[in-house]
Design brief:
This protein is of the alpha/beta class. The chain has one domain: Rossmann fold, CATH 3.40.50. About 30% of the residues lie in helices and about 20% in strands. It has seven helices and seven strands. It has a seven-stranded mixed β-sheet. α2 packs across α3.
Length: about 220
C-alpha cells in the first residue's frame, strides 16, 4: 500500500497543540500543498499544523485513503507527543477525517468538519464516481450517518452559500451525532476552508474553542 505523508510546520516551542488537516478534492484531486492556508495563523497562535497527503483515485480506493490518513495521524502523534490534537478536513477530506476519528477516537481531542460529503450513495451515478468505482454496497459501508460521534468536541460547518445538497449532508451527520451545525456567513463549498484557522481559534460565532490537554 502506498504510504501517506504530511506537510508539517511547528512554532518554536514544544510540546503544544497540533492541528492536522485532510484536504478535499472528491478523493481524486488536490494535495497537502494546496492546503496550507491556515498554517501561518495557527503557528502565530502556538499551534503546530500538518496537512496530510494521501493517494488519490483511481490509483487508490477510499478504503486505502482512510488507512493512509490513520497512519499519518498516528505517525504525527508518535513523533510530536502533542498536548492536544485537532483533526479537520474539507469536503471529501471531511469524510476522511471523520472516518479517521472513528478509527482512532482516543488519538483525537477535537474534530472540525467543513462542507463534508458523508453519505456517498448519491455519488454512485455521477461523474464523480467514475474514478472511485463505488457500488451500492461500498458506498453504504463508507457512508457516515449514524452515531455515536467519535469524540465529544465536534464542529460540523458549512457556508451559507452552499448548495442544499451539501447543507443536507452536514445537517444529517450533525443530527446523527447530536451536535449543532455551524453555518458560516459569506462562505461557500470552496472558500469555507479559508476560515479553518478562525474556527479552530474560536473566532467564528457559535464555534467554541475547546483545547483541553490530552490525557
Amino acid at each position: 500500500m502506498p504510504t501517506s505523508s504530511a506537510s508539517f510546520f511547528r512554532p518554536d516551542h514544544q510540546p503544544g497543540p497540533l492541528h492536522i488537516f485532510i484536504h478535499g478534492g472528491y478523493w481524486q484531486q488536490l494535495s497537502a500543498w494546496d492546503s496550507l492556508m491556515a498554517a501561518p495563523v495557527l503557528l502565530d497562535a502556538g499551534v503546530s499544523f500538518a496537512a496530510v497527503n494521501y493517494s488519490l483515485a483511481p490509483d487508490a480506493s477510499i478504503e486505502t485513503m482512510i488507512e493512509q490518513c490513520c497512519a499519518a495521524v498516528v505517525s504525527l502523534i508518535d513523533d510530536l507527543a502533542p498536548t492536544h490534537v485537532t483533526l479537520s478536513g474539507s469536503s471529501a477530506g471531511a469524510h476522511l477525517a471523520a472516518r479517521t476519528a472513528l478509527r482512532l477516537p482516543s488519538a483525537v481531542n477535537r474534530l472540525i468538519l467543513l462542507s463534508g460529503i458523508y453519505d456517498l450513495r448519491p455519488l454512485i451515478h455521477t461523474y464523480v464516481n467514475d474514478p472511485l468505482g463505488l457500488d451500492e454496497h461500498r458506498a453504504a459501508e463508507l457512508s457516515i450517518d449514524t452515531g455515536p460521534r467519535p469524540v465529544d468536541a465536534v464542529v460540523i460547518a458549512h457556508g451559507d452559500n452552499e448548495t442544499e445538497a451539501f447543507k443536507r449532508q452536514s445537517g444529517r451527520l450533525a443530527a446523527a451525532w447530536g451536535v449543532p451545525v455551524c453555518e458560516v456567513g459569506g462562505r461557500n463549498h470552496f472558500d469555507l476552508v479559508l476560515d479553518l484557522a478562525p474556527i479552530h481559534l474560536g473566532e467564528i460565532v457559535g464555534v467554541p474553542r475547546r483545547e483541553s490537554p490530552r490525557e
